[in-house]
Amino acid sequence: MEKYIYDESNGLWYELQGDYYILCLTLPTEKEHKPIGLWGQRHKRYLQEHNKIFYTTLLTSGKLNEYLVDVDKQTEEHFERLVEQMKQSQGITEQLKSENALEWVQRTNNIQACAREIVNKEIIFG
């Protein structure tokens, strides 16, 4: 028996595995493989655990990396925008930083934690 056979009726290749021919499948390659940041990695983990069908669809279509890079970029921009808006609304300025650095750090960390929760709820786990 041949190791590989080609079925002209459906245009697919099959490989001999033991006594059976198994369909040879390959995933499409993505055009660019850009690195995925923290937000994209979190969203990927969420999709793998809670939305397996969507994750598998993206993976098998070769669009997973592109999608995750886009999610990462949008999330980072949204996070930075939220932090800046919250700083302005709470009056956290460079003057406060020079006058009372400890308070500035505490309030900035609090704002970042709040913004992180918002972004996680709205984009990453939403």
Fold topology:
Blueprint: E1 4-7, E2 12-17, E3 20-23, H1 38-50, H2 52-61, H3 64-89, H4 94-99, H5 101-124
Antiparallel strand pairs: 1-2, 2-3
Helix pairs in contact: 1-2, 1-3, 3-5
Organism: Peptostreptococcus porci
Pfam family, one: TnpV
Protein name: TnpV protein
- Structural classification: mainly alpha
User: What is the chains' assembly state?
Assistant: single chain
Task: Output the helix-strand order.
Answer: EEEHHHHH
**How many helix segments?**
5
User: In what range is the share of β-strand residues?
Assistant: 5-15%
Across the major sheet, the strand order is: 1-2-3
Whole-number tally of structural domains: 2
Instruction: State the share of residues found in helices, binned by percent.
Output: 55-70%
Ranges with pLDDT <50 over ≥5 residues? none
* DSSP strand tally: 3
Looking at the structure, what is the overall shape? rod-shaped
Q: If you compute it from the alpha carbons, what radius of gyration comes out, rounded to the nearest whole angstrom? A: 24 Å
Protein name: TnpV protein
Pfam family, one: TnpV
Organism: Peptostreptococcus porci
Structure in words:
63% of the residues lie in helices and 11% in strands. The protein is mainly alpha-helical. The chain has two domains: 29 residues, no CATH class; 94 residues, no CATH class. Strands 1-2-3 form a three-stranded antiparallel β-sheet, with no helix packed on it. Helix 1 crosses helix 2, helix 1 crosses helix 3 and helix 3 packs across helix 5. The radius of gyration is 24 Å and the shape is rod-shaped. The model has no long low-confidence stretch (mean pLDDT 93).
